[in-house]
Amino acid sequence: MRSKFVVAAFAGLFMAGAALAQSAPPPATPAPDAQNILNLDLSTGGRVKVQLRPDKAPNSVERIKVLVRRHFYDGLIFHRVIEGFMAQGGDPKGTGEGGSDLPDLKAEFNDMPHVRGVMAMARAQDPNSANSQFFIMLQPNLTLDNNYTPIGRVISGMEYVDAIEKGEPPANPSKIVHASIESDDQGQPPAAFVPPAAPAAAAPVAETKQERKAREKSEKAEKKAADRAAKEEKKRRKEEAKPDLANPADAVSGGEAAATPGATPEAPQGTDAAVQAVAGDQPTENAVREVASEEAVSQPQ
């Protein structure tokens, strides 16, 4: 496996590179040309404009344009972002090991210093291995000069580059939502970056006398219908609360439930009990006389 950007060899020279950058004179920059403005709409919230420099690296700039017009970069992540150094992207695999189906490029080292905002082509150990990956400098580091191919510099939107999620790889990597060449899209950002216009408030319309009467009549009819429905519901609930006399369970006095079918009823008290205690369905004459005699004796005089 190969890495498309070698940093370890230059890690010890960061401070020296930063110090040299303070005294390096800025290179002459041509006027912006829409044919050579790369627009990167990032998930960090806005558009980054990069002025490409075909006068410094014609083949590398042309490669970027070709891939942009293929929509190659749309949706790709920044897979390697080092605080105070650079943000690297352009790998379809998102690992640093990928590239396009086009052949690798020969190095085009030039006199553009690797200062903040400079965009350069990433590569492996071989100087002639740049393909699709690039990096944008977060801080100057002149130790990269004549080791990588600068292709342009950010001219606006650097704050969106600074906001790219840091990490190797980042836990939640930032993305290139859309890449374009300004002359192709007339500088218009995609719909996701165009805030929708606020809808115009509808002008209030004065209500005529006839409309007011019709509205009041309608509201009155609706209220009347609602009241009627409420009364019917109240009546229905009241009817449901009444006991159903046709139901033996509801007919029991005091609301008690009827005896369970098949259960032995409690024996009644008094004369009938004595009569029922006599064996047989029909009481005998002697049994009746005995009961009558007992009751006569028990009656107070």
Please describe the topology of this protein.
Layout: H1 14-23, E1 37-42, E2 47-52, H2 58-69, E3 78-82, E4 86-89, E5 118-121, E6 134-137, E7 149-156, H3 158-162, E8 176-181, H4 182-185, H5 209-241, H6 248-251, H7 271-277, H8 285-298
Antiparallel strand pairs: 1-2, 1-8, 2-7, 3-4, 4-6, 5-6, 5-7
Textual characterization of the structure:
This protein is α+β, with helices and mostly antiparallel strands and 301 residues long. It has a domain at 35-185: Cyclophilin-like (Cyclophilin, Beta Barrel), CATH 2.40.100.10. Helices cover 30% and strands 14% of the residues. The chain has eight helices and eight strands, in the order αββαβββββαβααααα. The protein has helices at residues 14-23, 58-69, 158-162, 182-185, 209-241, 248-251, 271-277, 285-298, and strands spanning 37-42, 47-52, 78-82, 86-89, 118-121, 134-137, 149-156, 176-181. The longest helix has 33 residues, at 209-241. The model is unreliable at 6-16, 251-282 and 295-301 (pLDDT under 50).
Strand content: 5-15%
Biggest sheet strand line-up: 3-4-6-5-7-2-1-8
User: CATH homologous superfamily of the domain at 35-185, by name?
Assistant: Cyclophilin-like
CA-based shape: elongated
Order of helices and strands: HEEHEEEEEHEHHHHH
Quickly give the structural class: alpha+beta
Q: How is the CATH topology of the domain at 35-185 named?
A: Cyclophilin
The residue fraction in helices comes out at: 25-40%
Q: Which architecture of the domain at 35-185 would the CATH scheme give at its second level?
A: Beta Barrel
State the separation between the terminal residues, measured CA to CA: 127 Å
Q: Which stretches of 5+ consecutive residues score pLDDT under 50?
A: 6-16, 251-282, 295-301
Biggest sheet layout: 8 strands, antiparallel
CATH uppermost class of the domain at 35-185 = Mainly Beta
How many helical elements?
Answer: 8
The strand count comes to 8
Q: Mean pLDDT, rounded to whole units?
A: 78
Gyration radius from CA atoms, angstroms: 48 Å
